[in-house]
Amino acid sequence: MSGESFNWHEFLGRWQEEWVPRADEEEDDEGDGGRSAFHLGRPGAQEPAIAAAEERLGRRLPTSYREFLAASDGWHVEQTAGVYRLGGAADIGWFEDPHDMTPLYEESLGDHPREEDVLLAGMWQRALRLETDSDMSYALLDPGDSDQDGEWALYVYKGWSGELPDRYPSFRAYMEAMYRGFHADRAERPDFVNATTRAQDARVEEARLLALRGRYEEALPLVEEALSFGRPHSGVLLNQLRHLSAPRGSRDYGFLVADPRYLPEILPTAAMTPARGEWRLGGDDHWLGMMAARGVPRDTAEAVLGTVRDGTHRYAPPGPWGLAVSEAREAARWGATDAAWRILRDALPRWEAPGPSLIAPIGLLADPVLGALITPERGREILATPRDGQAGPAPDQVPDLDPPGLAWLTEPAPNGRSPEGYRCVWVEGIDPARLPALIGEEGAGLSAPADPREVARRAPRPHEREGVELWEDRAVVAVGRTAGAWAFAFDGCSHHLGNLFSSPARAASASGRAVVVWRGPRHSPPGDHPAAFHLSVAEQGEELYAFTVRGTEIRRSGVIPEALDPARLFRPGEGEPDGELRVLEALHTELGLSLPRFALTEGRLHTFTTRSWTRAPREGEGFGYVTFGGLRT
Prior knowledge:
By secondary structure, this protein is an alpha+beta fold. The protein has helices at residues 8-18, 47-57, 63-71, 101-107, 115-126, 171-186, 195-212, 216-228, 234-245, 263-275, 283-293, 298-310, 319-332, 337-347, 376-383, 435-439, 452-458, 505-508, 566-569, 576-591, 597-601, and strands at residues 75-76, 83-86, 93-94, 128-129, 131-134, 137-146, 152-158, 166-168, 422-428, 474-481, 486-491, 513-519, 532-539, 542-550, 553-558, 606-612, 627-628, 631-632. Strand 1 and strand 2 form a beta hairpin. Helix 9 (234-245) crosses helix 15 (376-383) and helix 13 (319-332) runs antiparallel to helix 14 (337-347). The protein is elongated and about 105 Å long. The relative contact order is 0.07.
């Protein structure tokens, strides 16, 4: 509050003037809907009455509560299912914890409690009780929880709820929240129109225009305030601002989902949560029923949910923005996610809202390929970009996410674990769609874009597939194209490189140069099982050179260029990652090889299953096949 003045007479008078019953309450027979028949407050208490109350309590009351009593000696706050009436100066008294809440809260403090938890535990015995009519609820002012202005925090405890009390920093903050709640409870009444509703609706329109001009940070507090008053459209605008700031969350757009103008943007976005299996309230049927209740035909909702779930949904808006979306998707589905984002960024000013309730292209989020690109930082850049014909300065651009080259393969995973094994085939100058024909298993074709990690984890093991030998090691690989025009097939969950390994480089190089890299998973600590690293290069069906490094042992064949000589790159006495890093840097420098980290770790790419990377055992050779919890070794 910072000592700012507050006119309680004006505030309470406006509340009284605006009062009407809620839509679910019965109005009395008077023509004004009960406005003049129902009084929320009472005449203000005189100073001697307030001073007498303070003498009885042994404490001076906080300023905002004293000034309230002087304006109205009590008030009908009408909290839904909570506190109904606050008493006056003669009614208030110490709570004194009649239900022994203090021991219950003190027991849960633990060894290192937070300050707010300590304050709450002590509140029950020192709080001042204000309410005189409630539904097993209490309005408690706590003198032990005060601010620099001497204002006491107010707690509302709903005894029937089993929840922690709601805390307000002062009595004034509580009353202002109750006033906003009074408005929100009546927002659906068509006749509930007054100076406050008109002012809040004007703020919603102002926020909408600010958002379209890229000034979303200025728009945010306006729509948050309007939403607290229950104003129509404020929730829809706020959800768009929040959804793009945190794209992985879910948002409810209410009945807007059925509006034909917005359905192509909103319905697929709404379907993302059940499509991920995160809809816990009765599954698909419940979600479909909710969509039907909002006016979406069941067959339409089912069809959209199906395409979002199987990864075939396509965000396809009209006009120049739609052309850019199509171009960006084509780039992103082959791994060029930074280039795809730049295409979208350049086209954002040409996005046109299909109606006044939409302020951003949230349909992007439901596209299986493009939605993965929209990080929180990029979502905020969308919001900060002027669009729909509005003018404003261009925002600072979010940096590209993909590092150059291959060195990122050596970096620890986000969870701190060592990188898993990986293997990759690069083929120079071909369309990635040709890779299944070169190294795929019989009948292999590209899948719809999907999370390659999830596809690999769910792939059946050899013993689960008819006609597949146990010695076979078929990989589920993600497919794409590098900036240097190499097609790649990448497996980020590879097994250990064993003695039966057979490089696919020859098969991949039928029409050009091919490179194969395989690094096996690392043990932690390394111990007696160093990770193997293999490189092979072939051209026109013939292997040019290859080497395999396992600890201090190096096996090599062909004429290996000096820049890739394993004896120079893997140095005695150094750790495995050092040599691996030098090889990967050399492959980038000498051959121009790279891989798109974001597409492979966060994006959606086409996948297919390769032929076996291992050969059949020869006479006298053996192999083992063991699974632990579904993991092959």
